[in-house]
Structures are given as C-alpha cells and as structure tokens.
Design goal:
Number of domains: 3
CATH architecture of the largest domain: Roll
Largest sheet: 8 strands, mixed
Low-confidence stretches: 4-23
Strand order of the largest sheet: 2-14-21-13-3-12-11-10
CATH topology of the largest domain: Dipeptide-binding Protein, domain 3
Mean pLDDT: 88
CATH superfamily of the largest domain: Dipeptide-binding Protein, Domain 3
Radius of gyration: 22 Å
CATH class of the largest domain: Alpha Beta
Distance between the termini: 36 Å
Structural class: alpha+beta
Helix content: 25-40%
Length: 464
C-alpha cells in the first residue's frame, strides 16, 4: 500500500494523477443535445458572492456553468486562459499585464471588458482582512490599461498568480451592477439561469452563441438539485431522477454495478480527509488530536471508509500526550465526508485506545470533512493553513515571492510544518468519486481539483 506525506500531497500540484478510473471516456465527437440533471451536496443555492466561500453546488453552478474566471485549469492540470487570452509578468513576478477576450458577453448583452475585471477584483480587495492570506489581500493595485487589458500589481511577487486567478471565488462580474449580477446570475458562462430558481433547485439554459462554441457546453439544459445527504443522492440516481451525483460513497459501487446503467468514476488528485477537534481551547484540542492521530489505524480508514479509493498519509512526528479520562464526542456527518459511518467507528476506536471517553454532548467534538485539492502549495497553505496569527501571512507572502525553486520549497516546507501542528488529523488522501449514468461521456481526462471534473461537468461532459 502506497504511503505519502502531507507535504508530498500538497506538492503534487494541479496535474496530480488526473486519470479517471471509468469506462466512459470519449468515443465519438460530441454534439449539443439533452438535459443534464445533477444531484449535489451543498447548503443551498444563493447569491454568487465570491467573498463567501462556495460549497460544491455553488462551485459547479458558478464558475462551471454561469460564470467564467480569468484563467482555467484544464483536466491535464495545465493553466490556460478563459476570459484572459495572454499575460506577462515583470522579472520579480509582482507586476502582471493581462490581455482579455474581446468576444465574451454577459447574459444581459453587455460586452465583457477591463472595467469588469477591475470592479470584481476591487470587491475582493475591499473585503480582505488585515493579515489575510487570500489572493485579494496580496493585490496592491488593479487598473485598466485599455478596453481589453488590465494590470495587476501585487504587494510581493507571485509566480503562481495565473493559477490563483482560476479560483472559483474569482468569477467575473459586470462592473455596472455586480450586486444584482450576484443575485440574478448574470455572468459570461455557457449557461444562464432560467426563471424559477429556488434555494434547492436551479435550471440553466444554454446560451445561443458563446466564445466556447465547438469545444464546450454540450447540454441544452441543466437542472441542479441540492441533495445534502448521501442517501437522497443515491436514491435519486437509482430511480433515474438525476443523471449524476457528486461525493459518491464508495460503498455504493455494488449497487451501481447491479443496476447496469450506472457507473462510479474515481479520480486521483490531492483531496484529503481532515479530522478536526472543535469546541475546546487550542491547547486541549491539540492534545486530543495528537493522541487520536498516533493511535488511528490509517490503513483501516482507507479500507473501511474509502474502500481503497485513496492512499495513506504518514502521520506527523508528534508525541502522544496523556489524555486518559477526557470526554469527547465523535460527530462525523455523512454530508461532509464519504464513508462517514466507517470513519466514525475507526475514530471512536482510536479514541478508546488513547484513553479518551467517547461521550455524546461532550464539549470536545471530533468532526471530519473532505477537503478538495489545490493546484499549488501556495494555494493550499493560504486556504488550509492555521489562522493567520503572528507573521505567518508575511512569511507565506515571502515564500510565494521567492523565485529560486529550491529556496521556495524550503520556505513552504517550514510553513507546512506549522500547518501540521494544528489540532487536525489528515490520515488519508481521497480519490474524487462521482456516480453517473453510463450514457455520459467525457474527453478521457478528468480534473481533480473540485468535485465533478473540477466543477466543470456542465462544460466538459456530454451524452453518447
């Protein structure tokens, strides 16, 4: 059984093993037809405000259908332009110039241009907190150079900026009415919101003409349904009410095989299961996390919870503290992590071995979630790192601005050691799993940064 470290996982990058284990790759030239129905995890459909973290349904509905970003990470992990066509950087990677498409149009008929980029990024810059590690906090200035060109000046250099501009949170909004566009879904994407959208259901229609015509957007209609529980998604899929669901449970595979017209696709990437201790002060949470981490059977987690769809991550070298008699509550929700029931059993067993007392309602809660992959170490450390205290944000900025690859890696390694010291356990990397109709096809490679082909199933898949 292959084992890797958390550091290695973060360093795999955007092209990490993005090969689907599935028999549904392309065998014909796609044509526009049909209606795609998706059952998705999430808290509900709401305004497309990128300043608030998107959950799976909002990512797939947002940057994968209704909106576009400046750049796009392809299924092979390569960075390409989306609303930007080309870019150049100063030698220190601090000043960037972007050329924009001149054939992109918002759903209300207004052409996309430099003013829209400036307005969108300034929204994020205004929202960034002091000491924040987000991309927007690193922007010093954004300005219009011409109708279809902008300049982004960073506070410190960042060679990975084009990757970060593909962040689903950074969908481009019209400068004239960004707030209204967030609510009504006025983007430049291949699909526009139809009337009747609710918090639980959205219907999208393919735009008649789009700059991606002939290479993406093969469905005429898309319906997205919010289905928070695995049971609701599996039932809808088995009964034919939806054509594909995200965050499939590995235990579904026998039932899908018996069905005959359904398949499960696994994609190797950089997603991981994170187990965290919440509800108590940092020092106490850290003691509990260390004790459970040292006694958790990681091979059993991979086998029982993920049915082998992933790999074991070696534990950080931390001493197991004395925690005998401390009460904890194991609260692992199926909506947040695949194989939740089996994972809860393994965590509870580890807690017993550590001398903890599993007790419902205890202040200390052990929870778990599936964390998506990220294309760069910088991005991972920005979003998954500790709360920005002390000079962490400053040192992260210095690391990302380092142009020497060896020194850059050394600095990221130091920061990664601090991430490992948080009250969390990262026992396994997890393959991305989706279940779907065997009628659905794709181009042979599947992106693993987010659910469902890096949240691009609406653009990249089609019916045979």
């Amino acid at each position: 059984m292959r084992r890797i470290s958390r550091r290695e996982l973060l360093g795999l990058g955007a092209a990490a093993g993005m090969v689907a284990v599935s028999g549904t790759s392309a065998d014909a030239v796609p044509a526009r037809s049909g209606s795609l129905r998706l059952g998705l995890t999430g808290r509900g459909i709401r305004a497309f405000d990128g300043r608030i973290p998107f959950d799976p349904v909002m990512r797939i509905l947002g940057h994968g259908a209704v909106f576009d970003c400046l750049t796009e990470i392809g299924p092979d992990g390569a960075i390409t332009g989306e609303l930007a066509t080309e870019w150049t950087a100063s030698p220190d990677a601090r000043v960037w110039s972007f050329r924009l498409r001149d054939d992109a149009v918002f759903h209300d008929g207004r052409p996309f241009g430099a003013e829209d980029v400036v307005a969108t990024l300034k929204l994020h810059m205004t929202a960034a907190r002091e000491g924040d590690t987000s991309l927007a906090a690193g922007i010093a200035q954004v300005r219009r150079l011409g109708p279809q060109s902008v300049q982004i000046v960073l506070k410190s250099g960042n060679p990975g900026l084009p990757f970060l501009l593909s962040d689903p949170q950074l969908v481009m909004l019209p400068a004239a009415s960004p707030d209204a566009a967030m609510v009504a879904g006025i983007g430049t994407g291949l699909y526009r919101l139809d009337s009747g959208t609710t918090s639980e259901r959205a219907v999208l229609k393919r735009v008649e003409s789009h700059y991606k015509d002939g290479r993406a957007g093969w469905f005429e209609r898309i319906e997205m349904l919010v289905m928070p529980t695995p049971a609701s998604r599996l039932e809808a899929l088995m009964l034919g009410r939806v054509d594909a669901v995200n965050m499939a449970d590995p235990a579904w595979l026998p039932a899908l095989r018996r069905h005959g017209r359904l398949a499960q696709t696994a994609v190797t990437g950089t997603a991981f299961v994170e187990i965290a201790v919440e509800g108590v002060a940092g020092a106490e949470a850290q003691r509990i996390a260390c004790a459970v981490a040292q006694r958790l059977d990681r091979e059993a987690v991979l086998s029982a919870a993920l049915h082998g769809h992933g790999c074991v991550l070696d534990p950080a070298g931390r001493d197991a503290p004395e925690v005998a008699g401390m009460p904890v509550s194991v609260e692992i929700a199926p909506a947040r992590v695949p194989g939740a029931e089996a994972l809860a059993r393994e965590v509870t067993a580890a807690a017993h071995r550590a001398g903890l007392v599993p007790s419902a309602g205890a202040a200390a809660r052990i929870v778990a979630r599936l964390r998506p992959g990220r294309p760069t170490e910088d991005w991972s450390l920005s979003l998954e790192g500790p709360e920005p205290v002390g000079d962490y944000a400053l040192r992260l900025a210095e690391a990302r601005a380092t142009l020497d690859a060896g020194e850059r890696a050394r600095r990221f390694a130091t920061l990664q050691a601090e991430v490992a010291a948080r009250p969390v356990i990262v026992p396994v990397a997890a393959d991305g799993l989706m279940a779907h109709s065997t009628r659905l096809r794709h181009a042979g490679r599947i992106g693993a940064l987010w659910d469902m082909d890096s949240a691009r199933i609406a653009e990249r898949w089609w019916y045979a």
